[in-house]
Amino acid sequence: MAKAAPMSPLAPKSYAQCPPIEGVRFSTAEAGIRYKGRTDVMLALLDKGTQVAGVFTKSKCPSAPVDWCRAKLKGGKARALVVNSGNANAFTGKNGVASTKLTAQLASKATGATANEIFLASTGVIGEPLDATKFEGALDKLVKKAAPEGILEAARAIMTTDTFPKVATATCEIGGVSVTINGMAKGAGMIAPDMATMLSFVFTDAPIAASALQTLLSKSVMGSFNSITVDSDTSTSDTLMLFATGAAAKRGCAKIATATDRRLAAFKKALDGVLLDLAHQVVRDGEGCRKFVEICVEGAASAAAAKKIGLSIANSPLVKTAIAGEDANWGRVVAAVGKAGEKADRDKLAIWFGDFRVANKGLRDLSYDEAKVSAYMKGEKIDLRVNVGVGKASWTVWTCDLTKEYVAINGDYRS
Amino acid sequence: MAKAAPMSPLAPKSYAQCPPIEGVRFSTAEAGIRYKGRTDVMLALLDKGTQVAGVFTKSKCPSAPVDWCRAKLKGGKARALVVNSGNANAFTGKNGVASTKLTAQLASKATGATANEIFLASTGVIGEPLDATKFEGALDKLVKKAAPEGILEAARAIMTTDTFPKVATATCEIGGVSVTINGMAKGAGMIAPDMATMLSFVFTDAPIAASALQTLLSKSVMGSFNSITVDSDTSTSDTLMLFATGAAAKRGCAKIATATDRRLAAFKKALDGVLLDLAHQVVRDGEGCRKFVEICVEGAASAAAAKKIGLSIANSPLVKTAIAGEDANWGRVVAAVGKAGEKADRDKLAIWFGDFRVANKGLRDLSYDEAKVSAYMKGEKIDLRVNVGVGKASWTVWTCDLTKEYVAINGDYRS
Asked: Are residues A93 and A241 part of one domain?
């Protein structure tokens, strides 16, 4: 943890250039929560009128900030987001609840907003008390220096075992008026989102009401964050929030009240793109990863079945270690399909690595060229396609390989 | 694969001494299916009148021998068991079906039994055609040299990535007459049994009818093989069979027709003991393992919920790597409880490593001595106890740690 890990070989070659969004300002600070010599608290300051939507972990043991956000989301309004790294404030009992309350009070005092408009997230070690008094002086300073350009530094402040900050951007039109979506995410391990990944925050100037925003977000998360896995371990802190400042209305953008509004077509596509980009970056920073793996399951009885089979393959340690070993071990893919518990016709099953069909109609495809497949497996991006032969539904999920480095990273994270 | 791996550090200090069981004889041979210089085929010859029961993988892609055994089990009678290692005959289509048929025909010819009384199992690589003609000469020789003492050698012949042969024995009384139960198992990876482990065969001279035997076996497997996991990957070939020769009847043992017969009390206990012993040996040979981990979940809403939570912890790569790193990282245990999807009261949760309570009432137990817990984590056997605070049900599961060696073993198994 303390020593900087080398950057993931799957990191993007450059960071997305996010244009400033009117109504959103960022700042970061070193609050000394756990790390030395790096930022560990981030403030996003939001103009009055900002609408908010969020999706959170389905864990039965959610963190205190997740409980806080769920409760405050009902108001639909946000003025500030405070996120710290180094401590997840999860499994911290009454102390954790008091800690979120104090943080919100301090942020309320510093920003002039009510505590109900303050959203919180924490990421890091589970079970250690979070000393919120450390935010006391920091929040005033954070408010003073907040600036529209700071999203990349903000993304850096919320990193834990991440090896690179994750940002994404898209611009689209609503009724002829240009709007922007910027997002950030963190996460590298304990990644099997069951509503959202560990932490991701997305901002837009589009004037969209909170209820419509919630519908858009809940839908978009299905094919992005909810379709990735690093290690099958769902976090206690998964949080994805979408903030809409509405500033584009000043430039003539139509105010959108419902998610079914046809003018949202391009926005939906852009939002999907930003979330998928961020979700892929999380996988590309999967602890110890060397390969980015896309798994498409087709011919399934339903989309839900295809997804379950896809995640069964993506979470199989045997499939993941085989890919780490650059071995197109489709026998293990068969086993993972079999254990998923969903309908699959063993005698119609077909499997491809890239364009190479290695199994067909329930047995090895004798025509494939082992040398060519081996060469393909040496690449950084592995496409795995499985047709389970029972229907027409499909789903795509993403994961990374399982390497010795994953074990090393997680064998001494806490100590 | 080819090079012999060092024996698991968790291997038993000595092998169980299994007394011969009347009506069961073993022999082994080198059929050259995949390995060089070691036995790879095992025959268990069973006297006329032997009753049989079995439980098999719930995989939707079962192997050809699993399909064969399921079909033949209806007869309830067995005369021979033929098992090969090196090739699982799974996902081999019509070729696989033909291969099981030919093997049974050859065994029928060699033994004089009907093909319906021949049981088969195969373990090894998935998806490669199994050339059953290799058994042609071998089976005659195997029948000729079969002897009552050969169970340890038989257990050795069915090993794949196993580092030691697994046998267990128990003696008990039925109505005052002594009977014996001997068992063998193989398995080290792809272990998350969903009816039975990869391969396990148990023999007794008790005169118990097939239908009663089936009831006993199905019940006993729940708390043993179905409660272990190495890597969450359920195999295509899981097979557990119980053969009862009935030879003890000649010594005055009562013939048992139903599983509810009260005279079975000691036998049930002995059978449970043999299966649990074998299941533990499979975990103790978990690929790359260094620690044997017992996880007891209590205070759950139901036994099924306790088991699901237990397996969620046991399959969590983060918990397993933490244990490999000798870190009592209970935060990851909380996350694994949370993701299981079963009822758990976060604010009542308590966690123990050995006798050390590290978390209580939803937060860190401030009284525990970190140095003592760290010393405990250096041991070879780790007991993890979790009370989820919602009910009175409990369940125990067993697993091993996840080490770099697991990744190394599985990164180049096939190639």
From this structure: yes
Q: Which residues of B touch A322 (CB under 8 A)?
A: 410-411, 413-414
Chain B residues with CB under 8 Å of A402 CB are 317, 407
Q: Do A336 and A301 fall within a single domain?
A: yes
Q: Do the beta carbons of residue B350 and residue B361 sit within 8 Å? A: yes
* Domain co-membership, A123 together with A155: yes
Distance between CA atoms of B277 and B33, rounded to whole angstroms?
A: 30
Active site residue A197: yes
To the nearest 10 degrees (0 to 180), the angle between helices B303-314 and B317-324 is 60
Share of chain A above pLDDT 70, in %: 96
pLDDT per position as a tens digit, B188-231: 777 666 544 568 889 999 999 999 999 999 888 888 888 877 77
Q: How many domains does chain A have?
A: 2
Nearest CA-CA partner of B237 in B117, B109, B130: B130
CB contact under 8 A, B413 and A329: yes
Write down the pLDDT at residue A3. 46
A–B CB contacts, 8 A cutoff, strictly below: 235
pTM over 0.95: no
pLDDT of residue A97: 94
> Which residues on chain B are in Cβ contact (under 8 Å) with A129?
363-364
Give the phi and the psi of residue A364 in degrees, each rounded to 5: -55, 135
CA–CA separation, B226 and A49 (whole Å)? 55
Contact A174, A248 (CB under 8 A): yes
Tell me if B329 and A359 make a contact (CB, 8 A cut-off): no
What are A287-314's pLDDT values in tens digits?
888 999 999 999 999 999 999 999 999 9
Please judge whether A410 and B321 are an interchain contact, meaning their C-beta atoms are less than 8 angstroms apart. Answer: yes
Please give the torsion angle defined by the CA atoms of residues A53, A55, A60 and A61, in that order, rounded to the nearest 10 degrees: -70
In three-state secondary structure terms, B275 is: helix
Q: What does the radius of gyration of chain B's CA atoms come to, in whole angstroms?
A: 22
ipTM (interface predicted TM): 0.76
- Are B408 and A404 a contacting pair at CB < 8 A? yes
Return the pLDDT at B3: 46
Tokens 């009552």 -> residue: B148
3-state secondary structure of A323: helix
Mean pLDDT of A311-335: 92
- Return the DSSP state at B226: G
| Same domain, residue pair B279 and B306 | no
Of B10-24, B85-99, B120-134, B183-197, which range is least confident? B183-197
CA distance A408 to A287: 9
Q: Is A6 a member of any domain?
A: no
Nearest beta carbon to residue A347 from set B93, B324, B413: B93
